Amino acid sequence: MTVVARILIYAIAASALHFALGLGGLVSLGHALFVGIGAYSVALPAFYGESSGWLHLAIALGACSLVAAVTGAISLRTSGLGFLMITLAFAQMGYFLFVSLKQYGGDDGLAIPVHSQFAGWGLDGSAKVYVVALVLLALLTYWMARLKRAPFGMVLLAAEQNSRRVLASGLTVLHYRLAVYVLSGAVCGIAGVLLANLSAYASPATFTLQVSGDLLVMLVIGGVGFTSGPLLGALSYMVLEELLKGTTDHWMVILGPAIVLVALLGRGGLCGWLERLDARRAAAALKARSQ
């Protein structure tokens, strides 16, 4: 149950990154910053005995939105590799900030003595976190599918293909991209709140490049641009990781090449492969009927 709940939480974080990457074309290596802020939004109030989940959630959403607005406004002045490196730099700044807070555990992290309580119902078990994460992921996936067809999403998709034409139509691309970046950061913060409650622990390691890289790899495996890509990518990546960990201590040696093969051979990731397989089956069935 704990493993599945963790997969769902990472799928939520990957879906948040998909808002920025799949809609806005923003390749970010700094989304671990927002997951970490969400985790510490639970840990720091809990350190002082505050168990209100509504307060934890409000702090996470407010802090992540504010930080995303500031860092996004700076990062979006660049593009491509520059944007990638600046977002990574902001995440590293978050890491070193929380490492320096020795009163809150520093590099050792901070145990969470009380879980988030929502009107007497607390996230004090993996089963409860699993249920909440499942519902949130379902709602988020549905919303993401609707957002792609909404005017907001269409502007972002058009800007990714040809931003000059969108600008010529009178729309400010920067504002749309900043909005989707803030939205992406806020949703990542919710994933951080759930992750903190699941593990009863918050650590500066949440801010590291590995977490941001994992989210990006999940999208590559699942398929960028596909609504179900984050879920399929998180499921495939984390299940494979768990299986390999139980087989050998050198599991990264196997996992790395497997990811490279998916990226090279599976255009569009697993979702793209399934789409092409379905198209071939439909073509074969049509050919059989015509004969």
Account of the 3D structure:
This protein is mainly α and 291 residues long. The protein has one domain (2-208). It is 74% helix and 3% strand. It has helices spanning 2-23, 32-47, 53-75, 81-99, 126-149, 151-161, 163-168, 173-199, 209-222, 229-245, 251-265, 269-290, and strands at residues 110-111, 117-118, 121-122, 201-202. It has a two-stranded antiparallel ribbon with strand order 1-4. Strands 2-3 form a two-stranded antiparallel ribbon. Helix 1 packs across helix 10 (229-245), helix 2 (32-47) packs across helix 8 (173-199) and helix 10 (229-245) packs antiparallel against helix 11. The N and C termini lie far apart (50 Å). The model has no long low-confidence stretch (mean pLDDT 89).
Q: What's the structural domain tally?
A: 1
Oligomeric state of the chains in view? single chain
Largest sheet: 2 strands, antiparallel
How does the overall form come out from the CA principal axes?
Answer: globular
Please provide the ordered H/E string of secondary-structure elements.
HHHHEEEHHHHEHHHH
Describe the protein's topology.
Blueprint: H1 2-23, H2 32-47, H3 53-75, H4 81-99, E1 110-111, E2 117-118, E3 121-122, H5 126-149, H6 151-161, H7 163-168, H8 173-199, E4 201-202, H9 209-222, H10 229-245, H11 251-265, H12 269-290
Antiparallel strand pairs: 1-4, 2-3
Helix pairs in contact: 1-5, 1-8, 1-9, 1-10, 2-3, 2-4, 2-8, 3-4, 3-8, 5-8, 9-10, 9-12, 10-11
